[in-house]
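[Target chain]
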Amino acid sequence: MTPHQDFFLDPRPPAPTLPQAPVLSDALQVCPPHAAGIDIGEAEHWVAVPPGCAPQPVRRFGPCPVDLDALADWRIDCGVTPVAMASTGGDWLPLCALLEARGVPVLLLDPRPAKRAPGRPQTDRLDGKWRQRLHTYGRLAGAFRPEDHVGVLRSDVRHRQLRLTSAAHPMQPMPKALQQLHRTRTQGVRDLTGVTGMAIINALSAGARDPVPLAQRRTPHCHHEADDIAQALQGPWRAEHLLA
């Protein structure tokens, strides 16, 4: 190489060779070959297994515990391992618990994207078969399911919130009923659900009408004096407003 030949050489490194694109197959791959699909209903469950697993690949079962045991036994006889079902309402809970107790992996589907999928049949008999085929090709995504201890905590928190909400409904008409009785909370007890307010309400329900003994039920932490509460509790008492 002469001293003038290196002037025409490219100092940049050669471009890397791009990997070849994979060849896409036209056929869908079968991920779990022994998958089953279940359409959960309030009165009946339709179960679909692969056509070669049973002479009757689609069967109907009832919602009773005996029917669920027969469903699980038939699934074991067919050799089906994973099961796909939709989480509509709470009808799926007993069957899901039974299948998981027998070691069957359950794929719980979100019903919203499952309903929007194209080609979904409109009958319960074909709906389970449709889920079974999509699950066989790995086209279904499972919904989020917490662990057992988290599920127990979530149920307790939801139950507590429901009880608190339902307990507040009977208290809502009470301020209006006191206003119709010409009793104002600004002169008496402002918080009817407090210790003083509930003591006075319970005494009124028991038949007490004298304002002075009613005012003596106040707690030391109450912001109003007993004389102010007794003055606010004076006047006539109408039966329909007392009932409210």
About this structure: The CA atoms of residues 115 and 121 lie 10 Å apart.
